[in-house]
C-alpha cells in the first residue's frame, strides 16, 4: 500500500470501528488489525496519537454526512429531513444494524476531552447545515433551527433503538414523524 493509502485505510477503518464498537473497540491495535496496516503505521501517520486518528475519523464521518445532503439544496423541508433520515437508514441497512454514528460514539464514550469537543463541533456544524437547508426549503430561521436540532437528536436516538432492537421499526416511526413535522412546519 502507498503511504497515503495506508493512512486513508486506517481512517476509514477507524470510522467503521467507532460506529460499530465505539472508542473501546477502536484502539490503534484494533484499527491496524482491521485495516491490515503494518504496526509501524501508527505514529508514522498519526504522530499526535489516537486523538489525531479519531479527529481524522470524525472529519471523514462528517464529510460523508455532508455529501449525503449535497443534493437537497433548495428542496422542501420534508425532503431535506427525509434525506437526512435516509442517510441513516442506508447505514443501518448496509451494515445489517451493526453501525451507528461514529460522532455520537465519541461524544458519549470518548475519553479524550479534545475528541469529545471535536464531536460537539461536528454536531453544531450538522445543525447549521440542516438549518440552512431547511431555510432554503421554506422554513423561517427559528423553525428551521428547531427542526434541525430535533431531527439530529431524533435520528441519533432512532439509530440507537434500531441497533439495540435489531429492527428498523422504531427508526421508521421516528423518521415518518419527523418528515411530517418538517412538512407541517413549512
Can you give keywords for this protein?
0% strand; DNA-binding; 186 residues; 77% helix; transcription regulation; Tetracycline Repressor, domain 2; 9 helices; transcription; Tet_transcr_reg_TetR-rel_C_sf; mainly alpha
Q: Estimate percent helicity.
A: over 70%
Note the quaternary state here.
single chain
Query: Could you tell me the number of beta strands?
Result: 0
Number of domains: 1
CATH architecture: Orthogonal Bundle
Distance between the termini: 50 Å
Low-confidence stretches: none
Q: Report the CATH topology name.
A: Tetracycline Repressor, domain 2
For the record, what CATH class applies? Mainly Alpha
Total number of helical segments?
9
SSE order: HHHHHHHHH
- The outline comes out as elongated
Class from secondary-structure proportions: mainly alpha
Largest sheet report: none
